[in-house]
Amino acid sequence: MTRALRDYLVFLRRCGRIAFVGDWRYYLWMGVLTVFCLLGLNAYAKQLVNGLITTGMSDQVSWGVYIANFTFLVGVAAAAVMMVIPVYIYDNEELHDLVIFGELLAVAAILMCLAFVTVDLGRPDRFWHLIPGLGQLNFPASMLSWDVIVLNGYLLLNVHICGYLLYCRYRDMKPSQWFYIPFVFVAIGWAVSIHTVTAFLYVGLGGRPFWNSSIVGPRFIASAFTAGPALIILALQIIRRVTEYHITDRALLTLRGIVQVSMLINVFLLVNEVFKEFYTGNSVASSQYLYVGLHGYHALVPWIWTAITFNLVAMFLLVLPLSRSLKWLNLTCVLCIVGIWIEKGMGLVIPGFIPTPLGQIVEYRPSLNETLICVGIWAFGLLSYTVFLRMSVPILQGRLAKTNESLPDPGMDGAPASLAAKP
Amino acid sequence: MDRRSFLRTSAVLASGLAALAASLSPLRKLDDYVSLERFVQKYYKELTPEEMKQVLKRIENEVERQYGIRPHVRDLKPMDGVEYVYALNLTRCIGCRKCVHACVQENNLSRTPEIQYIRVLKMPHGSLDVEKGEHNYAPESVPEKGFFYMPVQCQQCKNPPCVKVCPVHATWQETDGITVVDYDWCIGCRYCEAACPYWARRFNFTQPSIPKERINPDMAYLGNRPRRQGVMEKCHFCIQRTRVGRYPACLEVCPAGARKFGNILDPNSEVSYILRTKRVFIQLKEELGTSPRFFYYFDT
Q1: Tens digits of residue pLDDT in B213-226
Q2: Residue B9's pLDDT is what?
Q3: 3-state class of B261 per DSSP?
Q4: Is residue A377 one of the residues assigned to a domain?
Q5: How many domains, in total, are found in chain A?
Q6: Which of A61, A411, B143, B165 could form a disulfide with A21 if both were Cys (CB 3.0 to 4.6 A apart)?
Q7: Cβ contact B193–A62 (<8 Å)
Q8: Is residue A417 predicted with pLDDT exceeding 50?
Q9: Residue A132: which CATH number?
Q10: A207 vs B230: CB contact, 8 Å cut-off?
């Protein structure tokens, strides 16, 4: 028992150490991210002192880019499951070893989600009021309490699955099926639930007709399964470039198939939404504000049409054989990610508040301080994902293993270079 | 570890810590720090009478320290057999906004930034569609020809969406129909503000400020005691007045007699009479199923 504990602690210590070593590119990347994290932290300290008045939000538009980013990232986290399904349900071998990278991305995305909701709280010191038993969690009535549960649950599930598989690889033992397969299947259902619950957060508000529509949930899922795998396609190529980890083009093209189908569904649902809003001529005021402007106010109009253009161009590229070439595929992925980020953020959260339920139009623009906090959280997310990869790639390659415990860690002085790819 | 790498590690560590400290430096200006006492304060419904006494005393001390005036803070409970209802006569309202300002004064609402519970809409003849309403009207004198005026405040719904969505039960409906907020329990997520179909809730985006001489010292725990940065507040039918048998401030000040308030469970009350006899009265956004306890009626 003590021996197992000792082994595990050594494993953690070695993982921790390796996060601090790398070549100059690694240090530069981590250094830049750290600077942005600190800038965000500084901005958050100012917000803590002066209150949310430092943001662009108001009683009229009471949620802004924090919740918008949160919504987008829940989708990214949920989409990790789109790599898990092919592997565990259809036994796709190409993606098998890559699942871990997807799940680690989910972990990083959930960490960012939690950070985004925390900075949105007026009284973060009272977070413990949410803890069941200690506080007064309003479960099951409040959809926000559902969200607290499903997000934290999803975080635990993915940390367990990734941690267990990596530790087994480290010790070179075969993972026990009972110890992770049931969790994988629970996580698949759970992934859909986190984004559905997040959609219901909006759908459940009868006083906001723009959100109170049954198409919001399906659109959330479709757009998440577009943007998430698109992000993974880009991430995998970066991993392939900066480490010597082998990732086949076929794996990337499998993911392309997923992005393709999801984007088609997403655009189809968009067409449904726009038709319903505008054909009958009695559209919701928020939709008018979003798509064409209302009473001379149209701050969001350029945003949403950019998003729609990006989505349409991405859709055409995806259905053309052209996007089988990685160069075009990457462009397509960027279009998908940016398009959906705008659509889920500026295009969904903000117009729900404009006009207010009393018909007042107050526009919203994020403040500089608010933007810095967002940048800081994104930097923190990238930093976390980089660290996760820095630990897991050498383990998956067998370079960081129990068998070489006594040797200097890879990347340490005297050991083979860690990141630089071998010719 | 050799000398050189030790020096290098220490230098990196020291500069890292310095950068962290620098980025956190705005926190030095945090004057409204959270004392342990306030951090661990219990939920309103879980406070024993003894604990409530302590808390009320602490709040009185805090208010005195901040505003230099000793308030009287009470924990007023709902009365048995009482359900409050508000009725507003749209034929009579002249849009003078006296109710708005009386409310600000009575309920210790922040002056900078300005928070108001009541919003008066200037409506064109022939429509009850709030999207046609004008919020920032400022003519020489009211009323103006061709318009009527519709004050909107918390509708004290029977089926309040704000209560349903609160993740920590920080807002709830009391037995007399008033939806209240525990300002010491709210986490400031603003979900209730998004949920309210009447735009009746207000958030303290920064520390509210009230001139010392304007403080109303007659306070209630769930009512008009001063709020802090980062929490939600709303109209509570002047709990500190109505639960001791007085009228809300907005009603008392109304020069047109457009506002009526009372106990709907009492068949002899004015509001019972109005709802029994007026041919037309409406609930705002009735179709949402929130069932407001705030009725708008017309003289017939």
Answers
A1: 999 999 999 999 99
A2: 85
A3: strand
A4: yes
A5: 1
A6: A411
A7: yes
A8: no
A9: 1.20.1630
A10: no
Residue B150 within a domain: yes
Name the nearest CA neighbour of B150 among B294, B291, B275: B294
Q: Give the Cβ contact number of residue A32 at 10 Å.
A: 13
CA-CA distance, A232 to A90, in Å (whole number)?
19
> pLDDT-derived band of residue A90, with 50, 70 and 90 as boundaries?
confident
Partner residue facing A48 (CB), from B30, B43, B190:
B30
Q: Is A325 part of a structural domain of the chain?
A: no
Phi, psi of A196, rounded to the nearest 5 degrees: -65, -45
Question: Burial level of A304, CB count in 10 A (0-12/13-18/19+)?
Answer: buried
What range does the domain containing B136 cover? 96-241
How far lies A169's CA from each of A156, A165, A172, B156, B228, in Å?
20, 6, 5, 60, 52
- Cβ-defined contact of B26 to A141 (cutoff 8 Å): no
Does residue B236 sit in helix, strand or coil? coil
**Are A125 and B39 a contacting pair at CB < 8 A?**
yes
Q: Which of B110, B122, B154, B168 should we substitute to test contact with A (largest number of A Cβ atoms within 10 Å)?
A: B168
User: What is the domain extent for residue A85?
Assistant: 2-57+65-258+369-404
Count of domains observed in chain B: 1
Show the low-confidence residues of chain B (pLDDT under 50): none
Helices A81-88 & A249-279 angle (0-180, nearest 10): 120
Contacts B204 to A, Cβ<8 Å:
51, 122
Tell me, what CATH number does B137's domain have? 3.30.70.20
> pLDDT tens digits, residue range A151-163?
999 999 999 999 9
Task: Determine, yes or no, domain membership for A335.
Answer: no
Give residue B209's identity as a one-letter amino acid code: S
Q: What's the 3-state SS for A266-322?
A: HHHHHHHHHHHHHHCCCCCHHHHHHHCCECCECCCHHHHHHHHHHHHHHHHHHHCHH
CA–CA separation, A114 vs A120, rounded Å?
Answer: 10
Q: Is the CB of residue B30 less than 8 Å away from at least one CB of chain A?
A: yes
In this structure, are strands B72-74 and B218-220 parallel, antiparallel, or unpaired? parallel
- Structure-block tokens of residue A184: 């994988």
Q: How confident is the model at residue A261 (pLDDT cuts 50, 70, 90)?
A: very high
Q: Is residue B35 part of a domain?
A: no
Q: Please report, in angstroms and rounded to a whole number, the separation of the first and last CA atoms in chain B.
A: 93
CA distance B284 to B272: 19
Question: Is residue A79 included in any domain, yes or no?
Answer: yes
Residue to test with chain A: of B116, B165, B186, B235, most A Cβ within 10 A: B165
Touching check for B128 and chain A: CB below 8 Å?
no
Interface confidence, given as ipTM, is 0.93
> Which residues from chain A sit within 8 angstroms of residue B109, using beta carbons?
none
In a domain, B46, yes or no: no
Decide if B126 is inside a domain. yes
